[in-house]
Amino acid sequence: MEGKKGTFDLGKTYLETRGFFPHAYWYWIGVGALAGFVFLLNALFGLALDILGPFDKPSATVPEDSEDDSSNVQEVELPRIGELSSLYTYHS
């Protein structure tokens, strides 16, 4: 297929040989269909959430041993920067 000024449109020829629609308006039809499905599926998802409701009743769990919170805290000593550099050096 020849375009303007005798140029060869490889993309349009490829689309025609594969059976796709080579016209430019099919691009906008695809964009419109994509936007339509986005809105449709989001609306259906919201409707399904509204109809079905939550799976279980929401409830917060409170630990029984909440009297002394300081007993759960542990002290951890972090390595110093000089000690870390010896861990990451490569010895052959």
TrEMBL record:
Keywords: Membrane, Transmembrane, Transmembrane helix. Residues 6-62 form the Plant PDR ABC transporter associated domain. Pfam families: PDR_assoc (PF08370). InterPro entries: PDR_assoc. The keyword Coiled coil does not apply. The keyword Membrane applies. The chain crosses the membrane at residues 25-49. This is Plant PDR ABC transporter associated domain-containing protein. The lineage of its organism: Eukaryota, Viridiplantae, Streptophyta, Embryophyta, Tracheophyta.
